[in-house]
Amino acid sequence: MKKLFIVGAVAIGTIASAFPFRTSCGKVYNITGTSGMSLSAIAEFCNDVNFIACGENTNVILYTH
């Protein structure tokens, strides 16, 4: 029973750490693997994704709730 709860918690944590990111040129990427990162680190990561996808840097605004 404990294993089931641990696996469920890990699955929920994995789902919760993924989010869609729309670049400045309109492409959408599913960002994962950000659990444990600060908001500024996530913003820098998204800026890097935007640069790779669109060839330009931009100001990334993160909305949290």
Describe the protein's architecture and organization:
This protein has 65 residues and is α+β, with helices and mostly antiparallel strands. The protein has one domain. It contains 2 helices and 2 strands; from the N terminus they run αββα. The chain has helices at 2-16, 39-54, and strands spanning 19-22, 28-31. It has a two-stranded antiparallel sheet. A hairpin with a 5-residue loop joins strand 1 and strand 2 (28-31). The longest helix is centred in the C-terminal third of the chain and has 16 residues, at 39-54. The chain is globular, with a radius of gyration of 15 Å. It starts with a helix and ends in an 11-residue tail after the last helix. Residues 1-15 have low confidence and may be disordered.
How many structurally independent domains?
1
> Low-confidence spans: pLDDT under 50, at least 5 residues?
1-15
Residue share in helix: 40-55%
Tell me the Rg in angstroms. Answer: 15 Å
Percent of residues in beta strands: 5-15%
The side-by-side strand order for the widest beta sheet comes to: 1-2
Signal peptide: 1-18
Keywords: Signal
Topology, pairings included?
Blueprint: H1 2-16, E1 19-22, E2 28-31, H2 39-54
Antiparallel strand pairs: 1-2
Signal peptide: 1-18
Keywords: Signal
